[in-house]
Amino acid sequence: MGHxxxxxxxxxxxxxxxxxxxxGRRAPQARTRVVVADYSSISRxxxxxxxxxxxxxxxxxEAKTYDAVLASxxxxxxxxxxxxxxxxxxxxxxxxxxxxxxxxxxNTKILILASSVSxxxxxxxxxxxxxxxxxxxxxxxxxxIKAVRAVQEGETAFGKGIGAxxxxxxxxxxxxxxxxxxxxxxxxxxxxxxxxxxxxAHSLFISxxxxxxxxxxxxxxxxxxxxxxxxxxATAAGIIK
Amino acid sequence: MGHxxxxxxxxxxxxxxxxxxxxGRRAPQARTRVVVADYSSISRxxxxxxxxxxxxxxxxxEAKTYDAVLASxxxxxxxxxxxxxxxxxxxxxxxxxxxxxxxxxxNTKILILASSVSxxxxxxxxxxxxxxxxxxxxxxxxxxIKAVRAVQEGETAFGKGIGAxxxxxxxxxxxxxxxxxxxxxxxxxxxxxxxxxxxxAHSLFISxxxxxxxxxxxxxxxxxxxxxxxxxxATAAGIIK
DNA sequence: GGGCTACCTGTCCATATGGCTAGTACTCAT
DNA sequence: ATGAGTACTAGCCATATGGACAGGTAGCCC
Lengths: 241, 241
Hints:
Structural class of chain A: alpha/beta
Oligomer: homodimer
Mean pLDDT of chain A: 83
Low-confidence stretches of chain A: 1-28, 173-177
Order of helices and strands of chain A: EHEHEHEHEHEHHHHH
Strand order of the largest sheet of chain A: 2-1-3-4-5-6
């Protein structure tokens, strides 16, 4: 279905809209104002391109660092923040952004658009105020647009498979997910690189017993009993690369 | 820099071009014809959006399955195929696509646009005829456009960090990378889920010795001696999810 | 048939890992 | 300052894992 563009309106907002304002479908009334936070230029371009086809949304800004996200939300007070929690370094930081935005800017609804699924991250993000969670690779244009509309109206939006995770963890006691400590992280990273306890102990200047202790605790936090799965889950959660 | 769209040309090719033909910058002379293969709608939209800004490229088709890629390359004989090797199931299939395209359609240059870096995959893809390898999350719009131009002209294009991998493996004897067999894959997957040899043996109806045998062989192929690293590498290579 | 490969099984033994208990150092709120 | 909580350190012991053997079956290609 090819579309025809007739005119163009000069936009007051940087590169925020191209022909979307010009569709002539209706006057530029109340639009959902969106900030897109994603480290990848390609993803940002994709999200922009998709949302620009929808006359009900307008992208007011983009961000590619955690700081920039916060600054942008503060400046633009968007209706919806679309964010990939993994903005380069640490997914934990992404979770903190959820906290901050949810607390300080309750009018900005958070829609997570993640690169991968991790039960850990999903549950924790929702717990911290995100309303939606979609997986980039499994989200069609229409689904994305619908998800934005949903969270904008205060509803939830879950991508394929996410809903099941959510309901599974519905009655979960308290924090199903806990953060790994610095030391635990160090140890898990080295484990992923194939080092044994002895070698890890040596390279971190601690005893082998301590290495085992950290791995043990990290394992408890990620609900597993095997190093292989520990590494796998940590990777899936974006905790290690 | 807002641009102005004045007219639209009806395109013979489905959704292949929007306003790109209509930019009016110059006559639609020799353009680099591109097919984009990516499972993610968002990525495809992003790549399209970026390349449409370049007057020297035109996207003639999109594909989201391995079969569709081959069909599309056959039908459109593009100058460049931009592909994410991981089209859903198995990255191995992506590598096969490289083989096929490089052999049967030598005029189509292959540019890999991967979600993650894996030494394994990088080296293997280049060995099989890909000319460029970029990482989605670390590729800017300009870099993407330049990379397309480069491979179209028969040059190579490597994203951040990829060049180093390539030169490191320059004088590598023969196949640094080997494929895992079906059975090895089964075992590695279960290992990633935290099963022990005994449990794996039971769930695959084979003996524990055999499990160890497969893990041992898979470990050799992925150059490691620890299950944890085996799982990590297999994950990084996209061999398991 | 001979040379491949994938797949399967076993034993023996050294080492790595996981589960347990116990103790230290430090922060924080009472 | 006292008690609670948390990160960290440590030693002991059963089990899991990895390495080096030494085999056997079936299918495929030349």
